[in-house]
Specification:
The protein is mainly alpha-helical. It is built from 4 helices and no strands. The chain has one domain.
C-alpha cells in the first residue's frame, strides 16, 4: 500500500468516527491538549500503522511463498529419490534372477572373456 492510500484509509476511518482510542490518547498526550495537533498526530500515527501492517503482511506472504516453494522442491526431490530406489530395487531383483538362471558354463565363459579383455588392455 502506498502512503496516499494509507492516508485515504485514515480519512475514511475518521469520517466514520472509527478511531483507535489508544492511539488517539497518545496523540492528545503528545499535543499538550491541542485538538488540531492531536488530530494531525493521530492521522500520522495511524497512517504509519497501516503502512507497517501492509509491509508485514507482504513479508509474511513472501515467506509463505518461499516456504511453499521449498516444500514443493523437497517433495519433488523425495519423489525422485523414491523412484530411484524403486528402480534400483528392480534392477537388483532382475540381476538376482539373472544370476540364479545362469549355469557354471556361462560363468566360465564370462570369466574367460573378462580375462581376455583385461589381457588385451594391459
Amino acid at each position: 500500500m502506498n502512503e496516499e492510500r494509507a492516508y485515504e484509509q485514515v480519512a475514511s476511518e475518521m469520517s466514520a468516527n472509527n478511531l483507535r482510542p489508544g492511539l488517539m490518547a497518545k496523540a492528545y498526550a503528545e499535543s499538550a491538549g491541542n485538538t488540531n495537533v492531536a488530530k494531525s498526530l493521530y492521522i500520522k500515527y495511524r497512517a504509519k500503522q497501516i503502512i507497517e501492517k501492509d509491509i508485514a503482511d507482504q513479508e509474511a506472504a513472501m515467506a509463505r511463498g518461499a516456504a511453499e516453494k521449498a516444500e514443493s522442491l523437497a517433495r519433488a526431490k523425495a519423489e525422485q529419490a523414491a523412484k530411484l530406489v524403486k528402480k534400483t530395487k528392480l534392477e537388483q531383483k532382475e540381476m538376482s534372477i539373472w544370476l540364479q538362471t545362469i549355469g557354471i558354463g556361462e560363468i566360465f565363459i564370462i570369466c574367460f572373456f573378462l580375462i581376455i579383455l583385461l589381457w588385451l588392455l594391459f
